[in-house]
Design brief:
This protein is α+β, with helices and mostly antiparallel strands and 514 residues long. The protein has 22 helices and 6 strands. The strands form 2 sheets. Strands 1-4-6-5 form a 4-stranded mixed beta sheet. Strands 2-3 form a two-stranded antiparallel ribbon. β2 and β3 form a beta hairpin. α7 runs parallel beside α19, α11 runs antiparallel to α16 and α20 packs across α21. The protein starts with a helix and ends with a strand. The mean pLDDT is 92.
Length: 514
């Protein structure tokens, strides 16, 4: 009797409601993102928006970033509300919370899978705490999957979402292109769907949807194409790998492994590369066989992985925020699978037995749950680590400068790319020796030169001599000063070492004439 009452009472608690996941995620997400110390990759776009002199100048600057315009234009609108990068963090939190909300409310996964995914490495850490354009991928992919059934009446909604996804990041463009090819494949080969669409849609719907897609894709490609004077090409300065390199091939497959199981195999150890490749291929093959009953989601899974894999191999090996899109493709393919009835076309063609499919289904579920649990543990660990160890020493350094009343001093800062978060937090420009002028954000193009500490002190000496009103200079370096000049008096002020990113540990000095 007592047991029945306990069960009846606990069943009323919202622990197994999707809203329980959403609320807990939102609360911890707010705590995490307000605690997070931003680094250069987060703040540099904010500074580009803040300090570009005009709309044309803004677009020209974005060209050097290797990213489409959506994130930058979003920041421009946010800055009209509050001129503080914290609003960027709140906006980014909102993007991730909405993504998780859509996933929890509308995806076909069970409650346990939704919980594990939501607090996994990518939603709960990489695409939550780091305020960058990659969170848009999760939002628009999930929104696409949610509204996928609307294609029977109109393609306009999906076209808009694909356009937004294409203009969120280069990897968003890859996934968007893969989803577009999936829609085209279904429209071309499924006559029943095609007839149903034409019988229910407006006459202009297909034409309008095509226009939206063409415009969005051309805009994205135009913006991410680097100018001729960009020497880093959006961070991709290694050219194209056009020859077969077995080690690099295994290293690229290792990025899929890293996307699923969060371990990056050591590229110099053949055993690591081979083992991770075998495990990756096992998971991929299981997924291919599982999806073989649903040809359209199978097509998307193949195309999505191939497009990202090709770019990863031929051009840019990437970081977790980049190859995390392999994971999003997997989740999206399994989501889209729920919209289709089982088909025996591929199974009959390859003479696959029903009991073999049941066997694969069992092992794929085991593999998927393993992935979700690893992602969950990685998410909890990484999120907790960020609460304890600042990702960058930028916020602590900025707070010290403000409390010590140093923000109005003339500041020389180097290396310029590592100073973006300080410029953002302090809401001011610095003198950059790399540019030999005042600046905030960094564009990797001709005219910018890396400088050694000897050159930095030489420029400071010139600044002191050429400006009589300049008695002393506050010098901020991201490496400890190891040189000196007899005609300069250099006094250390304070060092800031607590930061996960070693290039964003700061050293403050007073410099004046000896």
């Amino acid at each position: 009797m007592l047991n029945e009452k306990i069960i009846k009472y606990t069943s009323r608690l919202p622990f197994h409601s999707p809203w329980f996941i959403i609320i807990i995620f939102s609360v911890f997400g707010l705590i995490g993102i307000l605690n997070h110390s931003m680094w250069r990759d987060e703040v540099n776009p904010w500074l580009i928006v803040r300090d570009s002199e005009s709309l044309g100048d803004l677009v020209a600057n974005i060209h050097y970033e290797g990213h489409p315009i959506l994130w930058y234009f979003s920041l421009a609108l946010l800055r009209k509300i509050v001129d503080n990068p914290i609003i960027m963090q709140i906006f980014h939190l909102a993007i991730t919370v909405v993504s998780v909300t859509v996933f929890c409310l509308y995806s076909p996964f069970n409650y346990q899978q939704k919980f594990l995914f939501s607090f996994g490495f990518f939603p709960f850490y990489e695409y939550l705490l780091f305020s960058r354009n990659y969170a848009f991928s999760m939002l628009f992919i999930f929104a696409f999957c949610t509204t996928f059934s609307s294609r029977k009446i109109t393609y306009a909604y999906l076209a808009i979402l694909l356009g937004l996804l294409a203009n969120s990041s280069a990897y968003g463009l890859f996934v968007s292109f893969s989803l577009l090819l999936t829609l085209l494949a279904e429209f071309s080969f499924d006559s029943e769907h095609r007839q149903q669409y034409f019988s229910q849609s407006q006459k202009y719907d297909l034409f309008l949807s095509i226009l939206i897609i063409i415009f969005s894709f051309l805009l994205s490609i135009y913006i991410i194409t680097p100018p001729t004077d960009s020497y880093l090409y959006g961070g991709l300065n290694n050219g194209w790998i056009i020859q077969l390199d077995v080690r690099h091939l295994l290293k690229t497959i290792g990025r899929i492994f890293g996307s699923y199981l969060l371990i990056i195999p050591h590229h110099k150890r053949w055993l690591d590369l081979i083992v991770c490749t075998i495990i990756t291929l096992f998971i991929v093959i299981l997924t291919l066989i599982k999806l073989s009953k649903k040809p359209i989601p199978l097509f998307f899974y193949i195309i999505g992985n191939c497009v990202i894999f090709a770019f990863t191999y031929f051009k840019f090996i990437g970081m977790p925020r980049h190859f995390g899109h392999f994971y999003l493709v997997l989740i999206a393919a399994l989501w889209l699978e729920s919209y289709y009835q089982n088909s025996r076309v591929l199974l009959n063609k390859f003479s696959v037995r029903p009991n073999s499919i049941a066997f694969v289904q069992k092992w794929h579920h085991i593999a998927l749950m393993l992935i979700l649990y690893v992602q969950f543990l990685g998410g909890i660990y990484s999120f907790s680590r960020d609460l304890v160890v600042p990702f960058s020493a930028s916020r602590e350094t900025s707070q010290y400068i403000q409390k010590a009343g140093l923000n109005n001093e003339f500041i020389v800062a180097s290396q310029d790319a590592s100073m973006a978060p300080l410029s953002g937090y302090l809401n001011r420009k610095f003198y950059y020796p790399e540019l030999q002028k005042m600046g905030s954000f960094t564009l990797f193009k001709k005219g910018r030169q890396n400088v050694e500490q000897v050159e930095i002190l030489s420029q400071i000496n010139s600044l002191l001599k050429n400006h009589d009103d300049q008695k002393k200079i506050l010098l901020i370096l991201n490496k400890k000063l190891n040189v000196n000049r007899n005609d300069l008096k250099i006094v250390p002020i304070k060092d800031f070492h607590r930061g996960w990113v070693d290039s964003e540990r700061y050293y403050l000095y007073w410099v004046d004439e000896a």
